[in-house]
What does this fold into?
Amino acid sequence: MPSVKRRSFLKTTVSMAAVSALSSVRLCAEEAAPISTVVVVHGKNISRMLEAGVAKLGGWDAFIKPGMKVVIKPNIAWNSAPAQGGNTHPELVKACVLAAEAKGAASISLPENTCHPEQETFKTSGIEAALKGTKAKLYRPAKGDYQKVGIPKGKILKSASVPKDILACGCLINMPVAKSHSGATLSLSMKNWMGSISNEDRRSWHRDGLHQCIADFSTFLKPSLVIIDATRILLTKGPQGPGEQAFPDELILSTDPVAADAYAATLFKEEPLNIGYIKSAQELGVGCGDLNKIKIERVEA
Amino acid sequence: MLIRRNHIRLVLLIVFALLALGRVPEAWKPWCVLLPSLSPLLNLGGAMATYTFGASALLALPLLLLPFFKGRFFCWRLCPMGFVLETVSRLNKRNVRLVRKVPFIGKGVALVILASALAGYPVLLWTDPLSLFTGFFAAWREPLTWVTGATAFGFVLLLLVSLVAPNLWCHWLCPLGGLQELLTQLANKLRAARRPVQSPVIHAENVRVGRRVFLGFALGGAVGLAYGNIKSAAAKAAAFIRPPGATDTNFNALCSRCGNCMKTCPYGLIVPDLGASGVDGLLTPVVKFRSQNNAQESFCFQKCTACTQVCPSSALRPLKTEEKQQTAIGLAHLEKKDCIAWEKGEVCMVCQAFCPYQAIIELNHKKVKCPSVDEEKCRGCGACESQCPSLPVAIVVKGRNPQVSLTAPPPTPSAQHVKS
It folds into this structure.
């Protein structure tokens, strides 16, 4: 065995250390360049805020083409009034539907597997009334409205039942309300898909590992645009409420659901990568959950 | 004349059948209570037994007054059950002499029902024809199973009886018919009393009627009192859930098995009981959160009082929304060994997310949030049981019999943070 001289050992060690240090500096430099953009609109008038936010992301033309089928997924889970913060604000839903109509969408559907009886929920949430006079179709999917799909990139989730309208649409807008959640810590955009899938899926996700299933599903279903309603947020007693609230008066827009969720988590003073599904989704390459790599553009409207 | 008479009966049959089926606009659905409420036996019997006389008691007036002017007009011209049985009876061409010798049992049954109702425990209420009719149509709902179809049993039995012994029911057995007959006799008696000369024959008849009425009442009262006392001791320990507003000790007697509450529940949560509430509770309504009738996997929604509004015999008391929200029909029981949070350490808390009354407390167990039931707040609405993802279900509601009123108000928004 050749003996290693003290000097040569030191030399190699030092040079290797130097190389690795340099390369890590270069890696850091790469990391510093933002890879996702989140637009945060602050204001009081929701429809003006929405327009300002979308304009920053290239305007509605970047998302909706004439004749396109549009699906909007608000959170309308609970039979509670808008002020309670359990559901997406009706004004936001309406503003988005009107924008889609103006852009000549062929159809606008809002399939929602509510947690409370749908007739009551659609009424109390104010969303049924907000959509009156528009061509938007708000409904709770029946058994026949679902289609089973494979989740090829899922770690543990291999299939899920998704409303056919969602699978067939040209533009998919995920429009959750930000709120605390008894199981998932926070309910943001990726968690919002649990209001689309079938009841049986919901149950099995909890059994199999809630956070990983949420992340797995996000490898499959990629929204064209994420708009998180953070005009008021439930700090406690989520997802249903009533609980303590805060009023950030913000809309959070992004094409990267992980980045949008990561920013929204900060409103609750949570470290994004401590939320299981944000971390897992980043690992699966769904998007970027690292605040250092997210470019946050603030807009006042 | 016959044709016109049957036309009216046919129209009434269709109207009442549609109401009983629930195939009417949503706003009309509470009217399904109309047909059974017309029966004084159900309506007044239930009211007497529970000491609750509301405006709905007025619905019994037509059938109480009609016999004084028109005898058994209701039986022969209006009753939908009578029309069906008469039609079926015609299929039997043989003239069965035997039934002519049957005494009018229905009169005695009517007296027994009313007397035992006064004693708080109306026995035989389920023999009321309008209830049997309603129960038959209430059974037709999706999906039809042996359990949900069970309330149709009495109606089918009457059809078979009519095939074998035509008109037996209407002429000799029906308690509502018996009541009509008794009232007709009373009317005749009053008329006879006003006449100056009484024939000795009528007099003798009057004495007999009077004695039978007395005997029927005495028997009914005695049975009612005795049964009521036996029942109140036996009914407590059971693990079945009654719909909200249920009376406690005399429920099995008060319930006429008309199926109105089962059919009216928008979520298919109420099914006929096949034994859990005792032999005398057969076909009474019980709440089941996990059944194929609850297709949407719903629970007893805190804003819904539908079932409490449609009971013709006061077995379910009409509740206001606030009362309903305070009424605990059951209490959730958590089986830790089946709970995925307690046992496997998975994040879950679905029960807490769904609980409308914030009755699920979170405990920390090995750094995972785990549920526990707050008995002071749990109303037994079944939100937790209907949604629990564990296999087997880890949180199951057991009935609170008697139901209790929890004065703790439902959660209201707490003091809101002022925007900083």
Observations:
- Confidence is low (pLDDT under 50) at residues 413-420 of chain B.
- Chain B touches chain A at residues 266-267, 296-298, 301, 303-304, 340, 346-350, 352-356, 358, 362, 369, 387-391, 411-417, 419 (CB under 8 Å).
- Strands of chain B lie at 270-272, 285-287, 327-334, 360-365, 368-373, 395-405.
- Chain B has two domains: 2-234, 328-410.
